[in-house]
C-alpha cells in the first residue's frame, strides 16, 4: 500500500515537473519569436527588450536569457533596455548577464551604475553573487564609475550588517584614492569599533603620503593614539611620520 502511494506521488511530481518545463519552453519560444519579430521590423534590441519588459516584467529572466542567446554581442543594449523598462529590474538584469558570461562582470557593473546609479548597492550585490570576481574589484569598478555612491556603499554595509566591511572599504579607497582621508573619516563615523582595521587597510591601500593624515583623523574620531600609529606602521607607513606624536 505504501509503495503504491509513493509511486502515485512520484508520478504526480514527474508530471508536474514536466508540465512546468513545457511551460518554460513555450515561454522561451514565444519570447524568442516576439524579439525576432520586433528586430525584423528594424526596432533595436534595446527597445525590443524594453518594450517586452514593460509589458511582462515578471519575465525578466527569460527575456534577458533569450535576448543574449540571439544577440550575445549586444549585451550592453540588452542591459540598458531592461533597466530603462523598469529600474527595479536592474539587479535581475545584471545577474542574468553576468551568469551568461562571467567575463563581462566589470563591464556590466560599469554600464548598470552609469545607467541607474540609484541602484548601486543592488548592482554590486547582484555582481558579487553572480560572478567569481573579488568584492574589492567589483566595488572599485562601481565607485570609479560613479564616485558619489561611495557613502551609499559604506552605509549599506552598516544597514545590512555586511561581514565584508574591509573588502568593500578597500574597494572604495582604490576607486577614489585621492579621497582616502574623507573615506576613512566617514567609515570611522559608521564603524567606530573598527578603527584599528580601518587605519591599517587605509594605509595599505593608499599612497604613504596620506599615512599621517589617516592616523590624525582616526585619533580625532576616538581611536587610541598608540593603536592608530601602530596599525599604520605595521601596514607600511614610515615611523618618521609620527615621531612628534610618539614623543608626546
Q: What gap, in angstroms, lies between the N and C termini?
A: 86 Å
> Considering DSSP H and I runs of 4 or more, what fraction of the residues is helical?
over 70%
Order of helices and strands: HHHHHHHHHHHHHHH
Mean pLDDT: 88
Sheet with the most strands, sense and barrel status:
none
The coarse overall form would be: elongated
Q: Any idea how many domains?
A: 2
The structural class is mainly alpha
Q: Supply Rg.
A: 25 Å
Strand content: under 5%
Strand tally is 0
| Number of helical elements | 15
Low-confidence runs: 5-10
What does this structure look like?
- By secondary structure, this protein is mainly α.
- The chain has 2 domains: 1-133, no CATH class; 135-248, no CATH class.
- 74% of the residues lie in helices and 0% in strands.
- It contains 15 helices and no strands.
- The chain has helices at 2-40, 45-55, 60-70, 75-85, 90-100, 105-115, 120-130, 135-145, 150-159, 165-175, 180-190, 195-204, 211-220, 225-234, 243-247.
- Helix 4 packs antiparallel against helix 5 (90-100), helix 7 packs antiparallel against helix 8 and helix 12 runs antiparallel to helix 13.
- The N and C termini lie far apart (86 Å).
- The model is unreliable at 5-10 (pLDDT under 50).
SSE layout and pairing:
Elements: H1 2-40, H2 45-55, H3 60-70, H4 75-85, H5 90-100, H6 105-115, H7 120-130, H8 135-145, H9 150-159, H10 165-175, H11 180-190, H12 195-204, H13 211-220, H14 225-234, H15 243-247
Which features would summarize this protein structure in a list?
248 residues; 2 domains; mainly alpha; single chain; 74% helix
Amino acid at each position: 500500500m505504501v509503495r503504491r502511494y509513493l509511486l502515485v506521488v512520484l508520478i504526480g511530481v514527474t508530471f508536474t515537473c514536466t508540465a512546468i518545463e513545457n511551460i518554460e519552453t513555450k515561454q522561451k519560444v514565444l519570447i524568442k519569436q516576439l524579439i525576432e519579430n520586433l528586430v525584423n521590423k528594424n526596432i533595436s534590441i534595446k527597445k525590443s527588450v524594453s518594450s517586452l519588459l514593460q509589458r511582462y516584467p515578471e519575465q525578466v529572466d527569460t527575456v534577458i536569457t533569450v535576448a543574449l542567446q540571439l544577440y550575445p554581442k549586444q549585451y550592453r543594449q540588452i542591459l540598458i533596455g531592461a533597466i530603462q523598462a523598469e529600474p527595479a529590474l536592474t539587479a535581475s538584469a545584471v545577474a542574468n548577464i553576468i551568469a551568461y558570461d562571467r567575463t563581462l562582470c566589470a563591464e556590466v557593473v560599469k554600464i548598470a551604475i552609469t545607467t541607474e546609479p540609484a541602484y548601486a548597492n543592488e548592482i554590486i550585490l547582484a555582481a558579487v553573487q553572480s560572478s567569481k570576481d573579488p568584492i574589492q574589484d567589483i566595488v572599485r569598478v562601481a565607485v570609479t564609475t560613479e564616485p558619489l555612491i561611495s557613502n551609499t556603499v559604506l552605509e549599506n554595509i552598516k544597514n545590512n550588517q555586511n561581514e565584508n566591511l574591509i573588502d568593500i572599504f578597500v574597494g572604495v579607497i582604490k576607486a577614489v584614492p585621492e579621497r582616502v582621508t574623507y573615506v576613512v573619516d566617514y567609515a570611522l563615523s559608521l564603524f567606530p569599533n573598527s578603527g584599528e582595521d580601518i587605519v591599517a587597510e587605509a594605509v595599505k591601500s593608499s599612497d604613504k603620503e596620506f599615512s599621517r593624515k589617516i592616523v590624525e583623523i582616526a585619533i580625532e574620531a576616538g581611536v587610541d593614539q598608540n593603536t592608530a600609529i601602530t596599525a599604520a606602521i605595521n601596514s607600511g607607513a614610515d615611523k618618521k611620520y609620527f615621531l612628534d606624536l610618539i614623543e608626546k
